[in-house]
Amino acid sequence: MKKTKKQIAEIAKNIKLLVLDVDGVLTDGSIILDNEGNEVKAFHVRDGHGIKMLAKAGIEVAIITGRHSKVVERRAHELGITEVYQRCHIKSVAYEHLMEKLGISDREVAYIGDDIVDIPIFKRVGLSAAVADATEETKAEAMLVTKNRGGRGAAREVCELILKSNGKWKEIMDDYNKI
User: What would the pLDDT profile of 41-56 be if each residue is shown by its tens digit?
Assistant: First the structure.
């Protein structure tokens, strides 16, 4: 289901919502547990900045993840993500709720995943992206495979693609270049 760069850019220009998995997408997939039962996750700062730039451009961001973690709640809050669905073993249920709540169509959604549980949503969204280190089955179903690995800039890569495709990248850059 791979598309050319031109086809992907055409799809990306209409994106109004980016939905992200967490483990393996916003993180490298590692789950670190300490002796007190605390969970630790590492997030890439540029992925977070990409998410903030999307929000600045008026593009919604949501999280749908199979696990539950207070760390995810904290990171989502830091990034201004209000639509956070955790403990979603069947992600399409949360996706349906999100679509109904936001009132947008599948073709206006981009989704980034890394594992086979993400494939059902890949088959629905306008733009499906698998991170570079996703499972082979997941990459085979994605329209786009990022150059970067999960937790290592993959989300930023998709954020920039969306912003450049819909003509908002220059506006974002101009804001940063103001003296």
Answer: 999 999 999 999 999 9
